[in-house]
């Protein structure tokens, strides 16, 4: 019996959160080893466990995988969340890269200079409501299906739900102009594996607070 | 007969260059429509051709594909440059993502303010020679094969060559400590489709010149 995947990262969202979401949605149990101080990162590096000296790193199927997109691609393909053919994969990739860009903006927010925070937050909301959400709203409208691609749950749906919830943490009513996304959110949140992940006590991580941001900066020399 | 892929981007490397490399390596002919002005970009947006209002955009197989990685994944899979199974794909993805990080660093060099340029160059050299190139040198050493993954030519080899050449533009002797990468470079450069792409007159783009920077900035800002 294969060991459970083991995630190596700080105890926060960052670039590991999408991986946690995808594993959870696929119903895959996983373990976590948290990097709490610089020495923990140094040890992983000195042990030769990190191909490019960076985390995320996920031990899975005998590999020490690094690079979040490589890890996500592998998990999606392994658990049949990557469409049924090349064209469906192309659409999933396009959608996921969009939500990656949007969530990336939010991820970087705590690390921007304090006096730019308000402006950056406004830009996030603008991009969410004028560049990204309209695309997914239209995709759902055009085909009328429950899922973004191929009438079947895929990585694109899981990633979109993660992004929606993250933007709502910035602005709770951000979906007000997007009725189909609201329904999508309700529906996708109710998928048993995802519902479980959304409950308190799951391995889902909270938004970063001042203390965790300071610790991350220390560990990664930022 | 399928139409040739059509690339929409300014006449420069940027995020489109890796796509040009992969198509060329796969022996796929392609057309290019160069964005020269902001109005041109606005028109593409207005016509609804850009899913997220951004380029690169590649018209291919009836799709208007956007997002560099999505486009590269599609081309790699279509032309059998993505390994033979999930595990080979995993290795290819790890290698390619690492190389993208280095590429990004190199790509941003021209956007650095004058007083930061020297330090940025030092960072590029440091990362290339201490973080990235050692990994690929070791991979080649460990299996002793000609290609990075699965003893077969893949997108990882194409990306590594592209990145090596870009790094050498920053520092010509950057491969000094990496004998296997030196022979890799020569070997891959000699693959007929790649050799052709490396010749003058191909669709490969030159590095961005400082005087061209304002024109590019104007298109996007």
TrEMBL record, chain A:
User: Which family does the UniProt entry place this protein in?
Assistant: Belongs to the GST superfamily. Alpha family.
Q: Which SUPFAM superfamilies match?
A: GST C-terminal domain-like (SSF47616), Thioredoxin-like (SSF52833)
Native source species: Columba livia
List its EC numbers.
Answer: 2.5.1.18
EC class: transferase
- What lineage, starting at the top, does this entry show? Eukaryota, Metazoa, Chordata, Craniata, Vertebrata
Name listed for the protein in its UniProt record: Glutathione S-transferase
UniProt-recorded Gene Ontology molecular function terms: glutathione transferase activity
Keywords tagged on the record: Transferase
Q: What reactions does this protein catalyze? A: RX + glutathione = an S-substituted glutathione + a halide anion + H(+)
Under the heading InterPro entries, the entry gives: Glutathione-S-Trfase_C-like, Glutathione-S-Trfase_C_sf, Glutathione_S-Trfase, Glutathione_S-Trfase_N, GST_alpha, GST_C, GST_superfamily, Thioredoxin-like_sf
Ranges of residues in domain GST C-terminal: 85-208
The biological processes this protein is annotated with in GO are: glutathione metabolic process; xenobiotic metabolic process
Describe the location of the GST N-terminal domain by residue ranges.
3-83
């Amino acid at each position: 019996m294969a060991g459970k995947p083991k995630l190596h990262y700080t105890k926060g969202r960052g670039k590991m959160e999408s991986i946690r979401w995808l594993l959870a949605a696929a119903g895959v149990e996983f373990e976590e080893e948290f990097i709490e101080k610089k020495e923990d990162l140094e040890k992983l590096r000195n042990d030769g466990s990190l191909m490019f000296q960076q985390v995320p790193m996920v031990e899975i199927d005998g590999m020490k995988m690094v690079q979040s997109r490589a890890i996500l691609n592998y998990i999606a393909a392994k658990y049949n969340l990557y469409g049924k053919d090349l064209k469906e994969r192309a659409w999933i990739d396009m959608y996921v890269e969009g939500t990656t860009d949007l969530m990336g903006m939010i991820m970087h927010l705590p690390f921007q200079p304090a006096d730019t925070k308000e402006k950056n937050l406004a830009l996030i909301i603008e991009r969410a409501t004028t560049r990204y959400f309209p695309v997914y709203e239209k995709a759902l409208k055009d085909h009328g299906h429950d899922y973004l691609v191929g009438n079947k749950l895929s990585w694109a749906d899981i990633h979109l739900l993660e992004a929606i919830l993250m933007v709502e943490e910035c602005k709770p009513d951000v979906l007000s102009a997007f009725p189909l996304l609201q329904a999508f959110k309700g529906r996708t949140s109710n998928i048993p594996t995802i519902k479980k992940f959304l409950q308190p006590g799951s391995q889902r991580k909270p938004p970063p607070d001042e203390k965790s941001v300071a610790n991350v900066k220390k560990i990664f020399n930022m | 007969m399928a139409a040739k892929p059509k690339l929409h981007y300014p006449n420069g490397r940027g995020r489109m260059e890796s796509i040009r490399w992969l198509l060329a390596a796969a022996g796929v002919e392609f057309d290019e429509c160069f964005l020269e002005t902001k109005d041109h970009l606005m028109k593409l947006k207005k016509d609804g051709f850009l899913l997220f209002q951004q380029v690169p955009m590649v018209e291919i197989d009836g799709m208007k594909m956007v997002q560099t990685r999505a486009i590269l994944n599609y081309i790699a899979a279509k032309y059998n440059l993505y390994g033979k199974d999930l595990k080979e794909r995993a290795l290819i993805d790890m290698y390619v993502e690492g190389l993208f990080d280095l590429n990004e660093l190199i790509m941003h060099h021209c956007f650095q303010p004058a007083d930061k340029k020297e330090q940025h160059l030092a960072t590029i050299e440091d990362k290339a020679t201490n973080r990235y190139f050692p990994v690929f040198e070791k991979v080649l050493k460990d299996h002793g094969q000609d290609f990075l993954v699965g003893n077969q030519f893949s997108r990882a080899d194409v990306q590594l060559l592209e990145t090596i050449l870009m790094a050498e533009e920053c520092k010509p002797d950057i491969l000094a400590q990496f004998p296997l990468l030196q022979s890799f470079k020569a070997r891959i450069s000699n693959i007929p489709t790649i050799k052709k792409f490396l010749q003058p007159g191909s669709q490969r783009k030159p590095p961005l010149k400082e005087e061209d920077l304002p024109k590019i900035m104007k298109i996007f800002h």
